[in-house]
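question for whoever is on the cluster today: can someone run the full assembly for these? two chains, 286 residues total. i dont have access anymore since they changed the login thing
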Amino acid sequence: MSEPMASPEPPVPPRASTRTGPGRLLIAVYALFALSASARAGVQIATKFHHAPVAYLLSAFAAVVYILATVTLAVGSPTARRIAVVSCSVELVGVLAIGTWSLADPATFPDATVWSGYGSGYGFVPLVLPVFGLLWLRRWNRGTRQGAKDVVAETKEPVPPY
Amino acid sequence: MSSVNGAVPTTIIVAGLALAGYALLLTALNRRMSVPLLAALGVLEILLLVLVGLIVARLASGEHPASLATLIGYLIAMPLVPVAAGFWGLLERSRWGPAVIAVAGLVAAVLMVRLHQIWPVIHV
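^ ran it for u. tokens below:
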């Protein structure tokens, strides 16, 4: 009702962002992992921390990384995208490192983390998720100052029909 | 008693996978969110709420699994999955809206397997 009528921009559909298009799906999966990893870590640390302290602390760390990636992908500002790149990178390194560690030294992991066995307990989604996250962010971080549509125009990529 | 065993969880697995297949088909066909898809999501939500009711009834009868906290977490989170996916998918004006719904369908199916692991009396 009291919306500024003299808005310089004409009414446009919601602007493209890291949270639209394929990003919508990506954030949904990230949110799912953020929720399940934090709930799992919370229960483990609260009820049986001494059973597998390393595994549970790593679960908690993974949870924080997933939350950070979910939020920054959803916000989508240049700063948020930079943090998202770091989160996804940490996540990729984490799943590869913890995956290898859990296979090489099973004694340290009497109970599984999200990243044990490269995320095999979660259908390897933890392994592919950061890869898709980084690919999606890379598309946005080329020519960040111009915004998404210009990025697509500049790189002459076919505009996906989403 | 046999209601927790079998019928409802199995129906949820079938419904969840069918919903995921339908939603992915819509994504492949470049369709947006539609009323039939939301209706199917609503059916999944009702099934999940029925299961929550059955499990709560069973808990009320005195039995409970070793990890009761985890089960309660699932009982709270489970009915929120289709609701959250519905809202998030409706915000999207492209083929990726149905893709979000597909995730909810797959998650519902996976949750049934997890529930069985948490409390084996919940059979599939």
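summary bc i know u wont read the tokens: Helices of chain B lie at 7-28, 35-60, 68-77, 80-90, 96-118. Residues 7-118 of chain B form one domain.
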